[in-house]
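Q: Given only this backbone (176 positions), what sequence would you predict?
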């Protein structure tokens, strides 16, 4: 049996691109999560309605950089939308529709980004809450911009985490 070495994997853009996707919903083939680098592991923990809000929790783990990296997380002005056409703002302040956290600290847009250091094999919890999420919505999409902080000598495969057409389900996810 032949195996690919890590170096071969990094040089193969098709292989690397596919590793950015999480597609756990067989009955919703148009739904996926695309994260910023295949050297990070992504695990969806929870999607749950809490009253009028939608709460999403996930883990990011530095499994492949083999060094400490610093990442910068920031939301765009419109951070989320649902399948009914409602848009949810990621702007900073009390009027924000989307509250995002990484490693327990909030981040937003324009100067309200969050820098996070990931040690090798360190897992960091992320979450976002869409306030006043339409009770009739069956799917949502969310975007978070990700860039390198002070880490030098590497590049990221993609510049965002995208949740696309995700079905609104309640409960915890075991393994991705």
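A: Predicted residues:
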């Amino acid at each position: 049996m032949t195996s690919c070495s890590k170096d071969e994997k990094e040089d193969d853009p098709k292989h690397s691109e596919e590793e950015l996707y999480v597609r756990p919903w067989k009955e919703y083939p148009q739904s996926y999560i695309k994260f910023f680098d295949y050297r990070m592991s992504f695990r969806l923990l929870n999607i749950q309605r809490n009253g009028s809000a939608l709460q999403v929790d996930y883990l990011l783990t530095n499994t492949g950089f083999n060094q400490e990296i610093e990442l910068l997380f920031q939301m765009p002005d419109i951070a989320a939308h649902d399948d009914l056409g409602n848009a949810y703002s990621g702007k900073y302040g009390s009027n924000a529709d989307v509250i995002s956290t990484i490693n327990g600290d909030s981040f937003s847009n324009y100067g309200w980004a969050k820098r996070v250091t990931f040690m090798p094999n360190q897992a960091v919890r992320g979450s976002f809450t869409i306030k006043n999420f339409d009770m009739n919505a069956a799917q949502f999409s969310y975007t978070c911009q990700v860039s390198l902080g002070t880490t030098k000598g590497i590049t990221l495969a993609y510049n965002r985490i995208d949740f696309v057409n995700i079905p609104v389900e309640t409960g915890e996810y075991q393994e991705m």
